[in-house]
Amino acid sequence: MKKMITTIVAEQAKIGENCWSIWLQAPGIADNVQPGQFVHVKLNQGEKLLPRPLSVSEADRERNALRLIYAVVGKGTKDLSRMKEGESLRILSPLGNGFEIDETASKSLIVGGGMGIPPLLELARRIPGKKEIYLGYSATPFLLEEFEKEDAQTHVSTDDGCYGYCGTVIERMNQDKALGDIIYSCGPRPMLKALSAWAKERKIPAQVSLEERMACGIGACLVCTCKIAMEKEDGWHHRRVCADGPVFWSREVVWND
Amino acid sequence: MTETVHKRPDLTVEMAGVTFKNPVMTASGTFGSGKEYGEYVDLNQLGAVVVKGVSLTPWKGNPTPRVAETYGGMLNAVGLQNPGVDAFIENDLPFLRQYDTRIIVNVSGKSIEEYCRVVEKLAVTEVDMLELNISCPNIKEGGITFGTDAKMAASVVKEAKKYASQPLMVKLSPNVTDITEIAKAVESEGADAVSLINTLLGMAIDIHHKKPLLGNIMGGLSGPAIKPVALRMVYQVCRTVNIPVVGMGGIISGEDAVEFILAGATGVAVGTANFMNPCATVEVLDGLESYMISQGFSSIEEVQEAMKI
């Protein structure tokens, strides 16, 4: 029977402007995590009741540890950033459906934006064959060192031009005339929407990892829904980002809200 | 050496002729139809699973964001998204029937006719009890309009009773001036039990983007923040009606459940706590049993009668 497990903070570090990295000792979990899955992190006390869904950035099977990268956006994540090594944290894990890796692709494109970049690190490691990575940041990049260790070309773009190409990832991809057999992506919704159109034009199948505010994280409360196309009714239905996603095929997502 | 042997207390309760193995239930809308939570808790341990509201036809619910956290609580505006009663009977009910727990189905509608047709469809199924939802604050028509007017509440209960083969519990809204008036009205038309409280209508605003945090603008407040209000209303209703009361609103521990039972509730439902911890229901049950053992209570009825005023 699944349960909420207690993990121990192994390492906590600030790795960028408002960007934090936490390693959790999570025996029995690191082995089972698929790239794109998330953990539901419950802070121990306080006025915030709901766990925080955070994607898994790295799963270290040897150390039985999970790495989560997060931005401090409110009280909950602020409390998380104050947790020290040795302190305990309860998590539900692993949750959701991760990326479906196409082992037959001769070249894969990995496209990330902002806080959508972290889960693509574990993904990049597990994708066999040729791959190209496009990362878009608003300003100073983070996690770049880790991505550059991968056997792939990594292209960086920034909104303010402080690093790499000045512009969006899509503009950068256009400049490079990027192509591949499949796209894996995670990032802010406007980026995913633009990427979805980009992929459709080029007839490249794309998997996108969506984000939505959650409560239970396991598919019961129907809070984190997204619109997914279907043939009957009005042409779409609500699917749960936590349990049916967070990764969906971009062609199935109804982008115009 | 003598050893004190604590006899396990009798946790069974009876409501409208239905026996429950213990008073701990799930609050509708927080537990789906039990499937997802079945991976975390043994559903056989629960007094009842109260499933998410079902309506005559599938409902798509409200736009996202549907949730916002507030101090000690949360707002939701799901809007009763559900696949409809036929899909529920076909897909969810057989799953629940595998477990030794009572099944209470929350019935939602936009008109008296719709409530009645759902009740009628459920009448021939293996469901133990119905919970008439006249208190959802998140849908525009029906729902709460029946729950905030004593005459409307009475009429929907009167009509639904004609089609019901199972006992009918009515879920009451706290968004009224005097909840006892509504409780009396539904009792007089044959309600077999009442459950309270549904969520309190609330709101939260994102000051940076200067817009409401919920897509629906307003939503229902739940969680520990509302417990004192819920407890007060349960206490008032218990002193007003002669039918059993299921109390809920911010229960996250066995001690919270005890408060509601001392206030007079026969059953207690765990809602928002499930989101904080999927094992919350059984932890509440364990806490309640420990309390009864430590206080020497042998039955729930004894706890219900123990409050000193």
Strand-helix topology:
The complex is a heterodimer of chains A (257) and B (309).
Chain A: E1 5-16, E2 19-25, E3 38-42, E4 52-60, E5 65-71, H1 75-81, E6 88-95, E7 107-113, H2 119-126, E8 130-137, H3 144-148, E9 153-158, E10 165-166, H4 169-176, E11 182-186, H5 189-201, E12 206-209, E13 225-229, E14 236-240, E15 247-249
Chain B: E1 13-15, E2 18-20, E3 24-26, E4 48-54, E5 67-70, E6 73-76, H1 85-97, E7 102-107, H2 112-123, E8 129-133, H3 144-147, H4 150-163, E9 168-171, H5 179-188, E10 193-196, E11 200-203, E12 205-206, E13 211-212, E14 218-222, H6 227-238, E15 245-248, H7 254-262, E16 267-270, H8 273-276, H9 280-295, H10 300-304
Parallel strand pairs in B: 3-16, 4-7, 7-8, 8-9, 9-10, 10-15, 15-16
Antiparallel strand pairs in B: 1-2, 5-6, 6-14, 11-14, 12-13
In what order do the strands lie side by side in the largest sheet of chain B? 3-16-15-10-9-8-7-4
Order of helices and strands of chain A: EEEEEHEEHEHEEHEHEEEE
- How many domains make up the 3D coordinates of chain B? 1
| Form type of chain B | globular
Q: What does the average pLDDT of chain B come to?
A: 95
Ends apart, CA distance between termini of chain B: 40 Å
Q: Determine the structural class of chain A based on helices, strands and strand pairing.
A: alpha/beta
The whole-angstrom Rg of chain B is: 19 Å
Note the quaternary state here: heterodimer
Catalogue the unreliable spans of chain A. Answer: none
Cα distance, first to last residue of chain A? Answer: 38 Å
Number of helices of chain B: 10
Count every beta strand of chain B, where a strand is a DSSP E run of 2 or more residues. Answer: 16
Overall form of chain A: globular
Topology-level CATH name of the largest domain in chain A: Rossmann fold
Known CATH architecture of chain B? Alpha-Beta Barrel
Number of DSSP helices of chain A?
A: 5
CATH class of the largest domain in chain A: Alpha Beta
Per CATH, the superfamily of the largest domain in chain A is Nucleotide-binding domain of ferredoxin-NADP reductase (FNR) module
Write down the Rg of chain A: 18 Å
Percentage of residues in DSSP E strands of chain A: 35-45%
